[in-house]
Design brief:
heterodimer, A: mainly alpha, two-stranded antiparallel ribbon, 19 helices, about 5% strand, B: mainly alpha, 2 strands, globular
Chain lengths: ~475, ~500
Amino acid sequence: MSLILIHLIFLTLSLVMLYILRHKSNINKYHNFISFFSFVISSSIFLKRDLLLGTKVELIEVFDKVSITFYLDEIGIVFLLVSNFLWFLTSLYASRYLVLNDYNNQNIFYIFFLFAMLATNGIIYSENLFTIFIFYEILTLSTYPLVTLKKNEDILKSGKKYLFILLGTSVIFLLPAIIITYSLTGSISFSDPIPFSGVSEIILIFTMLLFIFGTAKSAVMPFHKWLPSAMVAPTPVSALLHAVAVVKSGVYILTKIFLLIYGSSISFMTSMQVFVVLICYTIVASSVIALRQDSIKLRLAYSTIGQLSYILLGVIILAPLSILAALLHFIFHAFGKIVLFLSAGIFATNFKVKNVSEMDGLATIAPFTCFSMTVGALIMIGLPPTIGFISKWYLLLGLSSSEEYLAISVIIISTLLNAGYYLPMIYRVYFNDGATTNSEIREDVYLVTPVFLVTLVGVMMFFFSTPIVSFIQQIGYMQ
Amino acid sequence: MSQIPVLIIILPLLFVPIVILMRMFKVSYLIVVLSSVLNFILITILTLDVFTNGAVFYELGGWPAPIGIRLNADMLSCLFLMLIGFMNLVCVISCKEIVEKTVSSSKVYLFYTAWLLCNTGFTGIILTDDIFNMFVFLEISSLSSYFLISQGNQKKSTFAALQYLFIGSIGAIFVLFAIGLLYMITGTLNMQDLTKQLAVVEEKQIVLFAIVFLLVGVGVKSALFPLHGWLIKTYAYSPSIVTTYFSGTSTKIGIYIFFRVFLDILNDIGPLTLFSLSDILIALSSIGVVLITYYAIKQTDIKKMLAYSSVGQLSYIFIAMILYIPDGITASLVHVINHSIIKTSLFLTLTLLFISKKEVLLTDLAGLSTKQPIITSCFLVMSLALVGLPLTAGFISKWYLILSLIQSKYWMFTSIVVLTSFMTLFYVWKMIDQVYFKENSNGEMFELKKHQFIPIAFLTLLIIYLGVETSLTVGVSQSIAYDIIYGVI
């Protein structure tokens, strides 16, 4: 049996097991173990990738030429490793975080966290748009209970916004886009797409627009509001799901659609400037909004919206270097943003600091957390010696090779804006004297360890970036 | 084997006098169960036969077709027969306690009699090959359903039955007019013969009249948008088990007559292309679906909300059918099946949960998730299927509906359908919100017994099964659709 299927069956059975054990108190240990084992399976998939790449596993044919099918390609491997590795570390973090914050329905958290990761892995393995749509909806539905874990009126209101925007856009835009693709080409498969022939450019652009708005998980404006709403969730959810799994799923879907389904029939059309403008607007606007946020999590959320659009910008230009940059940023942003969120979680849990204005002098009592946060912030701004610099470098190279001067200037402006809202955070923790300096509380070691581990991996990647870059350059459609 | 088509109609009719004469409600219940099970078995055998060997004709008394009365079981009729037989069986199996609680005990045997007659009427409409017999069976089912509705134990249920009686009779008269007109110009009532005669007939104007009369008459029966008023009241004020039964059968019979008359008998004339009838109907249904969904969102009574939802979903079925392309007709037939199952299961769950309540408000659902978690999960699946989320039956029909609209390049109607199907989420959300996030208020909820739980669980699994494995729905519907459009049979 294929490793892909083994992985998915393992996750499904684990989900069933957690559901059966839902009344036990030590369910978090099972969850840690499951996430670790899932990471082990993904690593072995990575090592055995030559055998697995391109092999299809058809589960069931639902109707004519539409089936639930799984396969794996290179982008999938990248996303698989990143998400499963970060899932393991986040689950370690979460089992401590939930205890410290007195969540009384922890078992619901673990069950749905596992469910969401099952859906994420399902999206990674999906071979066609139909399968991806199924897991996309499951991901939305399974994260909803996580967002509304604490049921008070405000949270339920945010949760409703979250659910309705994500479900609504997928039903109104994504599903018709998939069906239009199906009816125009007769295929919605990634592994053997049928090129669009004799289809006017307007319909192509229109369908792509539907796809971009439909995958609202990629948070392109104006359908980005769900992401700030989702910040009412506990930090591990914001960190792993709303900085990595969920948002990256959106970007991953769009990447595959543009590279595989459209890539075979179009090169960059002039009318695709529409998307460049849309994405550039998202980048600038989100940075400007982030600048005005005082809440750390909201600032990070708006930063995520901008950073996701970097990836999309790289993909949509369809130049080899920009795609390379996009895929690199796909990995690097995950590491940077999860570190930032988890650090913010430590600040909130240990020191009750939730806003940027309260961060003064935290470095003296929380040195490791502040170090991690600094690394994360530098990745976001794209300064050396962090991995953020590498992806930004390639992105600018790619943009200048295809003479996208608007996009280049937007990237530069956005970098300045990023610096404008991340550097004050760094400055405050290191150079301002805060009221909390004298307190007895220190950062919790069980929370810091996973964060610090991710940070170290992130730092190491800068120095060993060559294998990653060459791995991505080998991908078939990079040429 | 060869007698099966007529047995399907005759057998329940034979049980009717027994029920009336026995007058004991325990025995009469057993007889109804027996009759439904037998009926379903016969239908299954017939369907398997038709699917393997092709259409079956049965000549009553051995008289050949144009003169004698004939029964006709082809793929289309078998699809609807299976649906009706199955829905009837599900409702009958789970109706015992409900009938005891809602219908006064002196009338129980009459209730079951009416039920049997109603179901016989439905199967008769489907099986007959004679357009006048179709009208007769339509009247049998209608008259018995007026009685069923009036047993609702509310003042308003009598009124609802009366309103349905008036509107239904007017619809029936229209149908009768149409049949008379067709008989006048062709001199035959047999459907197959009618098709042949109509091809050579001179008086096209009269055929047009007949079509319009039929459209209105059958439109009433199947709650086509502006003619849907009776359905809301009927669903809201009937005994809840009758609502459950009708939600899967009654309006679907209207759809069947549409299919039989417009896409089979009159198919060669192309009734939908005449004075751009299809455009008018699609526009009407689209306006209807928007308004109806809006009304559904505004309701606080769940039965009314689901009734409006039914009218909306019926509009989808009409839109898909009228497109007159293979995928459209497939969508229409698939949605007939899927919507029947989804709506019946929703109504059945509500019925069993609130056996003794006459009116079920949204707030009555509050706190269901903590009290009965398993039923709640089933209810969630049904609700999501109503919205049309993937892995449920509702998604399959939605896929084909949107696909057929896109293929016909009706962009505006596509967007209307897509938007309204999203609006479905709003009223479904109102139920889910109560179930999961509201505390229980007064709590007059019925604890389900094991044997009542079985049909609900079975229907839920069926919804999921039909969302993944579609050869039973899409496969069959597709071959019917190709038959209709390219005329293989």
